[in-house]
Amino acid sequence: MKTAVIIARFQTPYLHEGHKQLISQVKESHGKLIIILGVSPIVGSRKNPYDYYTREKMIKKDYPEIIILPISDNPSDKVWSENLDTLLKGVFPNEQFCLYGSRDSFIPYYSGRFETIELPEHGDYNATELRKQYADKVFDSNDFRAGILYAYYNQYTKVYPTVDIAVFRNNKTEILLGKKASNNKWRFIGGFADPEDESYEAAAKRELTEECGEMETGQMNYETSHKINDWRYRNEADKIITLLFSCDYISGSPAAQDDIIDLDWFKLADLPQMIVNETISDEHVEMFNFMITKYLNN
Q1: Number of C-beta neighbours around residue 103 at 10 A
Q2: Residue 187 near residue 180 (C-beta atoms within 8 A)
Q3: pTM (2 decimals)?
Q4: Which site in 21, 88, 142, 187 is 20 to 30 Å from 115, CA atoms measured?
Q5: HSE-up (13 A, CA, CB side) for residue 116
Q6: CA-closest candidate to residue 127, choices 212, 8, 279, 239
Q7: Are 145 and 224 spatial neighbours (Cβ–Cβ below 8 Å)?
Q8: Distance CA 108, CA 270 (A)
Q9: Distance CA 298, CA 296 (A)
């Protein structure tokens, strides 16, 4: 008799009845059962919040006799299929396998040597909706608090990308600067890039509009990049790296909005003294020095 193999992700906080019915149905037809858990290359995400070890323990709690193995995602369906076959034959060289999956599972992408069987859905269970239901729940337990630590300590250290914009007018003799309520010093206009932005140039244009209102400018030109010593991240492993763009003002009336509380035009020739007087935000001083060297000293 062939060994049954269920290939799935089980990215839920617990085994729901649909999972249990699936496992029971397959076990009824086979003496042996293996569960293969897909492993994402992304460490900790909304779609894949649980690592292999967490899901293995969840399944083993109810089904200690089931063998559970991991398989990594691969951009090539052909390579992934070959890896799956190699994994199964490497661990169990003398067995034949029957692979089980649901309608939206691996089956359409599998090109390996083993038989596949599509199983019907067991109940109206949606893993995404189930994750959402638990996403904002807070539990008063040591396990819950330990789980939060586990999740954060098992993530890659991140760089948050931001964009800053130098808006020039009058043949680049004047520059538009802003102030934020949290820091009463002049700075470039800017903010965090958004996953919905098509490019960093698009992010720069969006931030400029959000913080200065509607005005017409020329194209965004990349100037430089710099790690920002943002006060929010000074004691964190994660950091900010910003990309500085410049553009030419064409028309419109800039008005402070969003988290900008003040806007004004300054002569480029006044920037060196503003740095000496410490009226320029410390986070942006090195970028201002770059722009002074490029546009004023040359």
Answers
A1: 10
A2: yes
A3: 0.81
A4: 21
A5: 17
A6: 8
A7: no
A8: 64
A9: 6
7: number of Cβ within 10 Å: 21
pLDDT of residue 273: 97
- In single-letter form, the type of residue at position 165 comes to I
Using an 8 Å Cβ cutoff, are 79 and 96 in contact? no
Query: Distance (Å, rounded) from C-alpha 205 to C-alpha 221?
Result: 11
| Residue whose pair of structure tokens reads 């967490």 in the numeric block | 54
Total Cβ atoms within 10 A of residue 219: 10
Contact 235, 278 (CB under 8 A): no
Residue pLDDT, tens place only, 166-184:
999 999 999 999 999 888 8
User: How many CB atoms are located within 10 Å of the residue 115 CB?
Assistant: 11
Fill in the amino acid letter for 218: G
Are the CB atoms for 3 and 97 separated by under 8 Å? yes
The pLDDT value recorded for residue 123 is 64
Long-range pairs for 98-101 at CB < 8 Å and ≥24 separation? 98/2, 98/3, 98/4, 98/5, 98/30, 99/5, 99/7, 100/4, 100/5, 100/6, 100/7, 100/22, 100/26, 101/6, 101/7, 101/8
Q: How far apart are CA 203 and CA 209, in angstroms?
A: 10
Q: What angle do CA 194, 158, 228 make, to 5 degrees?
A: 75
Q: What is the signed CA dihedral for 246, 250, 256, 262, rounded to 10 degrees?
A: 70
Alpha-carbon span 181 to 166, nearest angstrom: 20
- Where the chain has pLDDT below 70, the residues are 103, 122-124, 298
- Residues near 297 by Cβ (< 8 Å), separated by ≥ 6? none
> What residue type is 15 in one-letter code?
L
Find out whether 47 and 23 touch, Cβ atoms under 8 Å.
no
Which residues have CB under 8 Å from 141's CB, separation 6+? none
User: How far, in Å, are 140, 167, 191, 218, 251 from residue 222 at the CA level?
Assistant: 49, 12, 15, 13, 21
How far is it, in rounded angstroms, from Cα 225 to Cα 151? 30
Strand partners, 7: 36
